[in-house]
Amino acid sequence: MTAIYLVGFMGSGKSTVGQYLAELTDLPLIDLDQVIEQEADMSIKTMFKEYGETYFRQLEHDCLMRTLGQEGIISTGGGIIERADNREWLKKQQVIFLKASWSDIVERLKHDNDRPLWQQGLADKEKLFYRRQPLYEEVSQRIIDTHGSSPERVAKIIVEKTTNKTSSSSFK
């Protein structure tokens, strides 16, 4: 079975790259945020507002655990690495960190009103960004710097690097 997990901060391109990667590999795309919203029959924004982040993180954890043994491209939420048990579990999977710069994230999400944690002040968002970076690195076998690359190009790089056993673990 082939499963490739994509991790990275919100706005790093996990869902978009995941779509292209699914097309290139003929594997299904499993977007955990979409699965959670469908199963809960509400948006993540509403979940955060009505039940809080802890509630959402538990649903996210449960959803992640159900991917064991599934074949596909699994796009995780940006906060999947917040729980230590998720990080330990992800370390045993094929995980790729889509690393985007802070300035790229700010530019990509400047008009986003749907992500609950993006609604904080800029300083709080930046602090969250830098706090999470080593956690993404901790769980990942490969790191892709997405700066200056289209989602299509990033997906092609992933295919090239995951099928080439002699490649390095960090590439652009």
Automatic annotation (TrEMBL):
Coiled coil: none annotated. One of its GO terms (molecular function) is shikimate kinase activity. Mg(2+) binds at S15. Pathway: Metabolic intermediate biosynthesis; chorismate biosynthesis; chorismate from D-erythrose 4-phosphate and phosphoenolpyruvate: step 5/7. InterPro entries: P-loop_NTPase, Shikimate/glucono_kinase, Shikimate_kinase/TSH1, Shikimate_kinase_CS. Substrate binds at D33, R57, G78, R132. Gene3D superfamilies: P-loop containing nucleotide triphosphate hydrolases. GO terms for cellular component: cytosol. Binds 1 Mg(2+) ion per subunit. It is found in: Cytoplasm. Keywords: Amino-acid biosynthesis, Aromatic amino acid biosynthesis, ATP-binding, Cytoplasm, Kinase, Magnesium, Metal-binding, Nucleotide-binding, Transferase. Transmembrane segments: none annotated. ATP binds at G11, S12, G13, K14, S15, T16, R115. Its cofactor is Mg(2+). SUPFAM superfamilies: P-loop containing nucleoside triphosphate hydrolases. It catalyses: shikimate + ATP = 3-phosphoshikimate + ADP + H(+). Belongs to the shikimate kinase family. PANTHER family: SHIKIMATE KINASE, SHIKIMATE KINASE 1, CHLOROPLASTIC. Monomer. Catalyzes the specific phosphorylation of the 3-hydroxyl group of shikimic acid using ATP as a cosubstrate. This is Shikimate kinase. It comes from Halolactibacillus miurensis. The lineage of its organism: Bacteria, Bacillati, Bacillota, Bacilli, Bacillales. The gene is aroK.
